Amino acid sequence: MGIVDCNVCGKGFRYLSHLDRHIRTHTGELPFKCPICEKRYRQKAHLDNHFQCAPTGERLYSCGICGYCCFSITDLHCHRDTHLDGKSHSCPFCRKGFLWPGNLKRHIVRHIGEKYFQCGGCAKEFVNSAEKKLHCLKYHRTQIAVKRK
């Protein structure tokens, strides 16, 4: 839980402003309006994005959920995935879900056990350089050069 919680769904937030923005998902309030086409948005950032794209006259693709604009249908499909409640890519080993296939690929490495990064101080092995770096900072108080196997 966060510092402030939504009284409708219980989701927690660190900042009151984030809670205020979230509440609009429950109320349906769309306070930000485009002065050109009068399309309305829940967040000012979505209006800013729309307004930046709208006057160009180029063919744009727009998200029907939040108004996000982009110049390719591929980008729109990638963006739409961010609105999925469930994760569309699941790990075959533990069934953990991921929104993006790249995140799933990085996760699977943990199950396979391939460790390509070795600590130069104690020879402990890691699945990625970030984990190796944290280890070196914590246990050796330094960033020992990455040894790639």
Structural descriptors:
149 residues, two-stranded antiparallel sheet, alpha+beta, 11 strands, 3-stranded antiparallel beta sheet, 5 helices, Double Stranded RNA Binding Domain
Q: Could you explain how this protein is built, in words?
A:
It contains 5 helices and 11 strands, in the order ββαββαββαββαββαβ. With 149 residues, it is of the alpha+beta class. The chain folds into 3 domains: 1-28; 31-83, 2-Layer Sandwich (Double Stranded RNA Binding Domain); 117-148, no CATH class. It starts with a strand and ends with a strand. The model has no long low-confidence stretch (mean pLDDT 76).
Describe, in short, the structure shown.
The protein is an alpha+beta fold and 149 residues long. 36% of the residues lie in helices and 15% in strands.
In terms of topology, how is this protein built?
Layout (H helix, E strand, L loop, with lengths): L3 E2 L6 E2 L2 H12 L4 E2 L6 E2 L2 H10 L7 E2 L6 E2 L2 H8 L8 E2 L6 E2 L2 H12 L4 E2 L6 E2 L2 H12 L6 E2 L1
Antiparallel strand pairs: 1-2, 3-4, 5-6, 7-8, 9-10, 9-11
CATH class category of the largest domain: Alpha Beta
Q: Which regions have little confidence, pLDDT < 50, spanning 5+ residues?
A: none
Binned, the helix content reads 25-40%
Overall morphology: elongated
* pLDDT averaged over residues: 76
End-to-end CA span: 41 Å
What is the fold named in CATH at topology level of the largest domain? Double Stranded RNA Binding Domain
The biggest beta sheet is recorded as: 3 strands, antiparallel
The helix/strand class is alpha+beta
